[in-house]
């Protein structure tokens, strides 16, 4: 009796402070099952626990009857997982002083639900259980979901600014070193870029004002990266006029800005060229780079397609900023080329891939074609996906060493061929492994990868042993079978500790002070 009287007096005396220091906030609607429970610390408390019941209760006896778990912790922050999305829960925290338990009032929250978290419709099928990184988590942007390594959805991307619908594509959904989440929302008319926290609150968004592109918007695409200095770097597009038909030997007639002659209307067409933009927290542009400036003076003029036309496609599909080297690598898929840019000067210091020369027939780049996801490893090697677009075969992961001096090509030091083992689907010789997919080096130098087109995700070590493997699938009710779901990229949170940092770096209250 004394215990309950003490609790009643304690909580009734400070109702505002108690509620303001508790998370989940009363009647919260959560887009995740893995929850950070935060509550006031108590002096001299030797132990804390939280207790969770399935359902909504204001009666202590009913709460105890429907209790589903008790989780212990050393302090007033405890992470707990509830069983399902689309459910209501009641919870309570306890602390112990001199081995006596004191209990809080009852609190309530709901977990939201979307189609993608219903594993009867969409699932991440585990092909091989994790031998390592068992406590990691995987983002699938095509699914909008964060999964544990057993294929259980634990978080989903909520609707942001009303932009997410059935026509929306989510790209490059990933956590950052700042324990936040970045992503691109791709709609038919535009692409928006965001940084959010675990709860889905917007922390930053790209201004998309067209200052670099010269258009009304920046035409963001493919990749958004938060840098170590807190700035953001993203790929965009500018539309530039160029001459698709060679008229002479001079590069000066290649671009509109250098031609004011009478043949301008007949010889020029609009072509998208890549941009790379760095923003600060305020949304100001602090640095930018345009691929059109590089290509104006490059050998691309001699890259001839059938009918001797310069129908070039210099689509850039990934970049990596190596901050140690102060170098940026940009991948141009359709000309099978990677260039190295000195930062912040913006000058191209090296070119990897075939160089085109006047009067010399082109030959296929022997190292990679149609590549994707260029990256630099901790040891300074480059690695990427070789899509093998010019030969019949599956894609491969390539690790290569840069030359000691400019003007030479990369040298391959490791390769892993993708497989379609254990995949129950029909393939043809022309299966399009042309887009999507990515590779990430893990702390032990294993590679986390997603497969282009098919989107199988896996971890492979340097001895080429698969450490974990899974396939995203969707149930087809008409054909009554599971079919794979195409993804743009997959990303990984490498450990439970890293996951907890993401959870706590949100709008919680820590020891009575807002973080």
Briefly summarize what is shown.
The protein is mainly beta. It contains six helices and 36 strands.
Give the end-to-end Cα distance, rounded to a whole number of Å. Answer: 37 Å
Topology, number of strands:
36
Query: Which residue ranges are poorly predicted, with pLDDT under 50 across at least 5 consecutive positions?
Result: 1-17, 246-253, 256-265, 306-310, 425-430, 509-515
Count, helices? 6
Class derived from helix and strand content: mainly beta
Largest sheet: 6 strands, mixed
The best one-word shape is elongated
Query: What share of residues are in beta strands?
Result: 35-45%
Helix content: under 10%
Cα-atom radius of gyration:
27 Å
Mean pLDDT over all positions: 87
Commentary on this structure:
With 515 residues, this protein is mainly beta. The protein is built from 6 helices and 36 strands. The strands form 9 sheets. Strands 1, 3, 4, 6, 7 and 8 form a 6-stranded mixed β-sheet that branches. Strands 9, 29, 30, 31, 32 and 33 form a 6-stranded antiparallel β-sheet that branches. Strand 32 (466-476) and strand 33 form a beta hairpin. It is elongated, with a radius of gyration of 27 Å.
Structure keywords:
single chain, 515 residues, six-stranded mixed beta sheet, 36 strands, elongated, disordered N terminus
């Amino acid at each position: 009796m004394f215990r309950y009287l003490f609790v009643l007096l304690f909580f009734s005396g400070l109702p505002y402070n108690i509620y303001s220091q508790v998370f989940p906030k009363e009647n919260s609607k959560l887009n995740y099952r893995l929850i950070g429970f935060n509550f006031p610390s108590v002096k001299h408390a030797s132990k804390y626990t939280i207790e969770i019941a399935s359902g909504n209760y204001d009666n202590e006896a009913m709460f105890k009857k429907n209790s589903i778990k008790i989780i212990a912790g050393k302090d007033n922050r405890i992470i707990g997982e509830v069983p399902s999305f689309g459910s209501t829960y009641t919870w309570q925290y306890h602390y112990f002083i001199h081995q006596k338990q004191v209990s809080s009032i009852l609190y309530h929250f709901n977990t939201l639900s979307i189609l993608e978290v219903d594993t009867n419709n969409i699932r991440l099928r585990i092909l091989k259980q994790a031998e390592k990184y068992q406590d990691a988590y995987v983002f699938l942007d095509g699914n909008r979901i964060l999964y544990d390594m057993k294929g259980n959805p634990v978080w989903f991307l909520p609707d942001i600014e009303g932009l997410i619908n059935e026509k929306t594509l989510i790209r490059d959904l990933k956590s950052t070193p700042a324990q936040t989440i970045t992503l691109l929302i791709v709609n038919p008319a535009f692409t928006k870029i965001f940084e959010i926290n675990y709860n889905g609150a917007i922390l930053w968004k790209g201004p998309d004002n067209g200052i670099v592109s010269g258009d009304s918007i920046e035409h963001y695409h493919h990749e958004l990266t938060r840098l170590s200095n807190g700035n953001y770097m993203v790929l965009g597009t500018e539309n530039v006029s160029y001459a698709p038909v060679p008229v002479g030997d001079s590069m000066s007639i290649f671009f509109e800005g250098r031609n004011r002659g009478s043949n301008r209307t007949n010889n020029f067409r609009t072509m998208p060229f890549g941009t790379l933009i760095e923003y600060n927290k305020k949304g100001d542009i602090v640095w930018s780079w345009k691929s059109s400036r590089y290509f104006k003076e490059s050998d691309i003029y001699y890259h001839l397609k059938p009918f001797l036309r310069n129908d070039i496609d210099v689509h850039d599909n990934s970049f990596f900023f190596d901050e140690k080297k102060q170098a940026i690598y940009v991948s141009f898929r359709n000309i099978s080329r990677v260039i190295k840019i000195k930062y912040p000067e913006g000058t191209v210091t090296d070119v990897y891939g075939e160089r085109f020369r006047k009067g010399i027939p082109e030959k296929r780049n022997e190292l990679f074609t149609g590549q994707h996801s260029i990256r630099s490893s901790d040891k300074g090697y480059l690695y990427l996906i070789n899509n093998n677009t010019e030969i019949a075969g599956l894609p491969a992961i390539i690790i290569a060493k840069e030359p000691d001096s400019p003007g030479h090509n990369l040298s391959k030091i490791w390769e892993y061929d993708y497989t379609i083992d254990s995949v129950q689907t029909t393939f043809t010789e022309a299966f399009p492994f042309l887009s999507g997919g990515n590779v990430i080096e893990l702390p032990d130098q294993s590679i986390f990868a997603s497969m282009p087109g098919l989107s199988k995700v896996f971890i492979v070590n340097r001895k080429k042993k698969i450490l974990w493997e899974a396939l995203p699938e969707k149930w087809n009710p008409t054909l009554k079978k599971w079919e794979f779901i195409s993804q743009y990229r997959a990303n990984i949170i490498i450990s439970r500790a890293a996951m907890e940092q993401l959870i706590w770096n949100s709008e919680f209250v820590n020891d009575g002070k807002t973080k």
